[in-house]
Amino acid sequence: MRYTPVTDPDPDFVAKVVDSGHPDFKRGDLVWGRRVGWEEYSLVTTPECLLKIHHTDVPLSYYTGILGMPGITAYFGFYEICSPKKGERVHVSAAPGAVGQLVGQIAKLMGCYVAGSAGSKEKVGKP
């Protein structure tokens, strides 16, 4: 069976502003967001999809991972909604995924016992 997506991928991105007519963004600003295609240059007509990066003391790639959608989803979905307590048992399905691996790490940091599962043997790497 072949999968054909309904829309183009909607990736997170990190970019440097090369020109701007918007008062909130100037040349050289670092920004991150979503809804920009896979391309070298993009014309962003909806600046509300951009967030200015103020802290460059972490690798910029973190803004597409732990500080981006996967991290936000893991934090709010697990920490805020589940309200884990030290010593509790946590099962993470899809543990090798972008969100699942962060949920597992957050749970371990909270002092929980963590077990994870994956959809296939290929998704479970050896340490």
From TrEMBL:
A GO molecular-function descriptor: 2-alkenal reductase [NAD(P)H] activity
UniProt superkingdom: Eukaryota
Transmembrane regions: 60-79
SUPFAM superfamilies hit by this protein: GroES-like, NAD(P)-binding Rossmann-fold domains
InterPro entries membership: GroES-like_sf, MDR_fam, NAD(P)-bd_dom_sf
Keywords of this entry: Membrane, Transmembrane, Transmembrane helix
Protein name: Oxidoreductase N-terminal domain-containing protein
Biological classification of the source: Eukaryota, Viridiplantae, Streptophyta, Embryophyta, Tracheophyta
